[in-house]
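2024-03-11 09:14:02 DEBUG pipeline.ingest accepted 1 chain
2024-03-11 09:14:02 DEBUG pipeline.ingest length=164
2024-03-11 09:14:03 DEBUG pipeline.predict start
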Amino acid sequence: MKGTVGIVAFAFGVPETILSNQHIAQISSRKARELEAPVYTQLDVRVEQGIEVEYTDEQLGNPPATLRIARGAIQWAKRRGFRDLWIVAAKPHLSRCLRDLTYAVREAGVQIKIHACKEIEQCPPDEWFCPNSTQVRTQSRKNWQNRERILKFMPMFFYKRVAS
């Protein structure tokens, strides 16, 4: 599989020291070592030393939208000739990450299979939310669900404008 697969890791909150981002970094690192694959991620996900990593463009303290990360990941995968991408994201964020990546694949007109890392399921559900996150939406399940309900059911033509 080496050379045909990549890992895409989506942060869940800010900064890198919160538990959710530590879980994401650990799962990403294990999967990258297992598959001998590079990682595409955000500044708040710090994978282990020795793993090839490319960070999405972002300004410190201003993480990019999920769709923008997905589009960047697909362009990265396209440049690298990847046929498969393994996704690491917080369980509450996973369905939107998968939706946005699938959309970005269609938009780019490429043949890339998207897989979710099963290890995500091993994290206790409440450990994804952290009151120490500087992003209010990831501090609690209630905050997340209030925002996510809107984004999940928003028509894609409108979501693209909001998320770009």
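2024-03-11 09:14:41 DEBUG pipeline.report The longest strand covers residues 5-9.
2024-03-11 09:14:41 DEBUG pipeline.predict end
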